[in-house]
From TrEMBL:
<comment type="similarity">
    <text>Belongs to the germin family.</text>
</comment>
<feature type="binding site">
    <location>
        <position position="155"/>
    </location>
    <ligand>
        <name>Mn(2+)</name>
    </ligand>
</feature>
<dbReference type="Pfam" id="PF00190">
    <property type="entry name" value="Cupin_1"/>
</dbReference>
<feature type="disulfide bond">
    <location>
        <begin position="32"/>
        <end position="47"/>
    </location>
</feature>
<keyword id="KW-0732">Signal</keyword>
<feature type="domain" description="Cupin type-1">
    <location>
        <begin position="61"/>
        <end position="208"/>
    </location>
</feature>
<dbReference type="InterPro" id="IPR006045">
    <property type="entry name" value="Cupin_1"/>
</dbReference>
<keyword id="KW-0964">Secreted</keyword>
<keyword id="KW-0479">Metal-binding</keyword>
<dbReference type="InterPro" id="IPR011051">
    <property type="entry name" value="RmlC_Cupin_sf"/>
</dbReference>
<dbReference type="GO" id="GO:0048046">
    <property type="term" value="C:apoplast"/>
</dbReference>
<protein>
    <recommendedName>
        <fullName>Germin-like protein</fullName>
    </recommendedName>
</protein>
<feature type="signal peptide">
    <location>
        <begin position="1"/>
        <end position="28"/>
    </location>
</feature>
<feature type="binding site">
    <location>
        <position position="116"/>
    </location>
    <ligand>
        <name>Mn(2+)</name>
    </ligand>
</feature>
<dbReference type="InterPro" id="IPR014710">
    <property type="entry name" value="RmlC-like_jellyroll"/>
</dbReference>
<dbReference type="InterPro" id="IPR001929">
    <property type="entry name" value="Germin"/>
</dbReference>
<keyword id="KW-0464">Manganese</keyword>
Length: 218
């Protein structure tokens, strides 16, 4: 056997050992149920004592019973994320169920940390996202349709059915996806209205009106 082939075999052997060790390390604990009494860090919540983990940590009752409402947008939702579903911590997945009423919409938003895929249970919905080169990708979805949103891009949902509520199930590639609504961000802050107007091409009066609506100041 030539020295070159021998060295390649040795490198391959150590590479396989490293892969094995990494897998053993990642699987050292079967799960990391969130300790919600501790602060959340960049990697999620710390694990709670395994002896206190129960089946209820991996269970969420009736996701289709909406628990949070957004009257301004005619939207209601249930969030299956780590803060209310601690067994998801570290698993890299989560879900939302939401309903969009007639003439309702989910305003332009981004989820910087996660990709998303949705399934339309019932209704007709216009959905879309805008790529980083400002190209729009959008589609009208109906019962049974599925649509994917790439990580971090601006996107939206509009109920385009004239007489019925749209019911949607969404899944994410993070156990606690961050959500940032565009309008809330520009109008719900404490930047001076003149500054917001300057950097958004909106007029100052319109900014003040939006700030009053979304809880901003100055």
């Amino acid at each position: 056997m030539s020295p070159l082939i021998s060295n390649i075999n040795i490198l391959f052997f150590f590479f396989m050992i490293m892969i094995s060790l990494l897998n053993q390390s990642s699987n050292a604990a079967d799960f990391c149920v969130a300790d919600l009494t501790a602060p959340e860090g960049p990697a999620g919540y710390p694990c709670k004592d395994a002896s206190t983990v129960t089946s209820d940590d991996f269970y969420l009752n009736n996701i289709t019973r909406t628990r949070t409402r957004y009257p301004l947008f005619k939207v209601s939702a249930t969030f299956a994320t780590t803060p209310n579903f601690p067994g998801l911590n570290g698993l890299g997945l989560s879900m939302h169920y939401f309903e969009i009423g007639v003439d309702g919409f989910v305003p332009i938003l981004t989820k910087p940390q996660t990709s998303e895929i949705i399934y339309v249970i019932e209704g007709m919905v216009d959905v879309g996202f805008i790529s980083s080169d400002n190209k729009a990708f959008y589609k009208t979805l109906r019962d049974g349709d599925v649509f994917a949103f790439p990580k971090g891009l601006l996107h939206f949902f509009v109920n385009s059915g004239r007489k019925s509520t749209a019911r949607i199930l969404a899944s994410y590639s993070s156990s606690d996806p961050g959500i940032q609504f565009f309008t809330n961000s520009i109008a719900g802050n404490d930047l001076p209205s003149e500054m917001v107007a300057k950097v958004t091409f909106l007029d100052t009066d319109q900014v003040k009106k939006l700030k009053a609506q979304f809880g901003g100041t100055n």
